Amino acid sequence: MSFPCGAGEGAEGGRGHAVDTSLLSATQKTLRRQVHETIEKVSDDIGRRYAFNTAIAALMELLNALGKFDDSSDQGRAVRHEALEAMVLLLNPVTPHIAHALWQVLGHGETLIEDQAWPTVDASALTKDVVTLAVQVNGKLRGTIDVAVSLPKDAIERLALAEPKVADFLAGQTPKKIIVVPGKIVNIVV
What we know:
Number of helices: 7
Strand content: 5-15%
Strand order of the largest sheet: 2-1-4-3
Radius of gyration: 21 Å
CATH superfamily of the largest domain: Isoleucyl-tRNA Synthetase, Domain 1
């Protein structure tokens, strides 16, 4: 049987290796964050809102991200396996029969998926190290920059001014004011 995204790896694929969050690369952290964001969203969609369509849409987005995740290291396989297990558990209320079959393919033998606990969100996985900020000049979007969450305002201003599209648009003009809204936007007024 052939499965996309490394599903079919069974016990040797990811269960043998636990996710060690201190060893994760940026790509692995991004996928793991998306897994836990999906757990949070699907839990709310099914548990509070009874919105199965948006829960399935969130799972499809995660599956697309898994399809693009190409990491065969031990930690990469462990993150992929964690994602697949979470997806199968989240699918169980909607498609119990296929979820049970997938649970077995993931290396859980004859254990019943119904006996498994609902996945919980790891709050530490939801933290971001880098955010993308929109850079506007006179209220119009001119570019984006990726910055560390802990970067000070003056460094963000320098990066925004150095962004090639912004620098081209400014063309030697000196900004009158630079407004930085942390985690969201940089607005340059000329």
